[in-house]
TrEMBL record:
NCBIfam families: morpho_MmpB (NF047320). This is Morphogenic membrane protein MmpB. Keywords: Membrane, Transmembrane, Transmembrane helix. The chain crosses the membrane at residues 20-41. The gene is mmpB. It comes from Streptomyces lutosisoli.
Amino acid sequence: MLWSDPENEPPKELRDMQDMLRRLGVLMALAMVLAMIVLGIM
């Protein structure tokens, strides 16, 4: 690791997109669980 190496930080847009995708993934998982519960009740 040289002192002249650029920071390993991704740009802000990329981090925002990753956060959004993570939230979407959580929402999708919750929706799937809810759907399974509803289908199981019917």
